Amino acid sequence: MAVLDGDLLGLPARVGAIVNAADPTLLGRDGIGGQILRAGGNALTAEIRGRFPRGAAVGTAVTTSAPGLGADHVIHAVMPDFRAVGRAEGEALLRAAYRGALAEADRLGVRTVAFGLLSADARRGPLQPHELQALAEQTLRTTPTRVRNVFLVRQAARAGAEDLAALEAQRLQRAGRAGDQRREAERVYAALRRTLGIRELDVAPDGDCFYNSMRLMFGDELRQVLGGEPTVQRMRRHLGRVLREEFARIDRGEPTLYNTELLFANAVTGPRVQRSRDDALFYIETMGQWNSDAGDSVPQFAALAWGIPITLLGRERPHHIGPAGEPPRGYLVYDAEIRHYLAARSDSETVPAEVLYETPDVAALAEPATEIPEDPRALAGLLRHLETYRAAFEILRASFRELTERSPAMRTSDPARRGDRLITAFYERLNAYRARPDRARPDCAGPDRADRGDR
Questions:
Q1: Which of 28, 229, 290, 293 is the most buried (most CB within 10 A)?
Q2: Superfamily per CATH, domain 2-155
């Protein structure tokens, strides 16, 4: 759980559900509830009136869709009015509303929920905001739930137009530099491919091209895995059997072996899990079938399941697929124009993807410098928007951990290790800055905050 200062309707990442501070009618126009109704428009209002014509009882929670909002669902937690009830009764109802919202989230199967602070407007009566927050935190931290990430969002003032314009200008500058670096890396990558003399082999451009390319390149390895000649039919059947076993592990709540949660995400969570599983198995097990819209999911899964590290050569950049930390044993080429996989050979040793496509900015962030510039003007943007950055980081870190911790294969993969380095680098820089005793200088924070010291 994390407490964030920000805008419940402007979180920097999509969440499974946002929790509305609702009144018993579910149609209140004040505070965050009114903002949610206005953002949801006529569709949300019509749904509430159609499904809940009598509203909902105080201390309960109900769910609707979330049109126009950065979430899959809106959970409407009906909060008490402390002006109309005693403190003890109000606190009991408020706890019930938080617990009811978590119960709804469990019923929906969502992993991430963002709460606004309930009863924080005029309905708080004699209670102080810090008392409401303490009750919310204690209730949310102690209520059993299957929700992985809970964010309690305290409403913060919105940034002014000048701040937003300055941030957007900085973002465009960073995007331009990143684009230049990416284009340079792509140019070097293309030149290296030519220098290495990588030759594509003749493979028929049909639905079996990936499997036939694997047979040409890695026949010996596949014979050991399959216990016989690696025909396309045998390869497909084996891969389908492994994927069925992975789905069974997921259903039992066990960790997967081959990063299935990420590669086949729609077959793990969502409204069409069984249909997505059936489709994935059909395209894997049926001769001549291939789903180009699935991207590299099947090649990545196959390389992991068969234990073969490969450098996959895309049009713009290479990728490592297969077991992490092992040197690649050969190349596969993906022709994006015709969506066709080709076996490829060269006269030299296979080059790892990270060598073919090096980006110096990633290496620089891996070990960040924690020295803070002395000029406070250089930190003005960071100070002004510190809580916005912290909110974005907390959501990013929680999402990243959710992705990597459920799969041993993902946890040890090169992308996971690189992502961990980047997130750790940001965390160290942010904490180094926040730890400075002079971080709330008047010349950085503005004259209205000059008397606040280090609070």
A1: 28
A2: Leucine Aminopeptidase, subunit E, domain 1 (3.40.220.10)
The identity of residue 279, as a single letter, is D
Residue ranges of domains in the chain: 2-155, 197-356, 359-449
**Tokens in use for 422?**
């980047």
> Nearest 10 degrees: CA dihedral of 441, 442, 446, 448?
120
Does the model's pTM come out above 0.70? Answer: no
The CATH architecture of the domain made up of 197-356 is: Alpha-Beta Complex (3.90)
* Run of H or E including 346: none
The pair of structure tokens assigned to 447 is 């004259």
